[in-house]
Known about the structure:
Order of helices and strands: HEEHEHEEEHEEHEEEE
Pfam family, one: 4HBT
Number of domains: 1
Shape: globular
Distance between the termini: 37 Å
CATH architecture: Roll
Structural class: alpha+beta
Helix content: 10-25%
Domain Thioesterase: 183-255
Protein name: Thioesterase domain-containing protein
Amino acid sequence: MHYPLNTPLGRMGVQTLEESPDRCVASIPVAGLLNPLTRMPTVAPLAMLVDHIGGLINHLRRNDDEWTVSSELALELTPDALDLVTATPDVPVVATALPFGPKGTASLGLCELTHGDRPVGTATVRSFHIHAPGHVIEWPTDSTDGSPPAALEDRMSVQIAETGGSSAVLRQLPDPVINNSIGIVHGGVSAAALELVGSAALGDGSGDPWRTASLRVNYLRQFRGGDESRYEARALRVGRSSGAADAQAIGDDGAVALVARLTAYR
């Protein structure tokens, strides 16, 4: 399934290849996209892919009067993940999601990520089953011509606010195109932005590049783009071969909406 460019999935180039309660498969292009804070290649779009496909497999398990929202996302990448996706830019990363365990208040989806015939990562998404909200927005179904914006920051509608030292900040601009069906910033866009600021907080790209190994995200409350909405990260440790950073998404009201921990190696 191809999504229109005026939806978050279309903007990020996601394609759903299979969709059923037992197995969902989707892909996303990664090569050629740069972290706007470091101008280095990034695996951040994989968080978008995982949130979509892991959330979808959970969503297909809902009851008729239920909706789903992401509550946790965990992504683990192989040491060569970034090298593989940048070496063959025409090959997208494919994620396959399966339901894991029984449906409960929150269901768990298990994902495997591959690039060609090579594994590049594994991930889980936990989704809350909630009563269906009354303000679900139907995404446009009309196809739009053209391609997504070339720059990742334009696809995600983010803007550099601060970089350098051991911290990094991206503003989340208000843009309905990157919102989900309940009118808040798509969880995959937010998770990808947390990877961008987290990896940037470890360094500006000088010297040996950092390779993200894990990203763990907790969704605490709804997050909307706005004048003060932003993603912030600070380094917890920057060693010779390993680093860790904490990141958070903060809304216009000053409340923390998402938190994340990123680890990286070089």
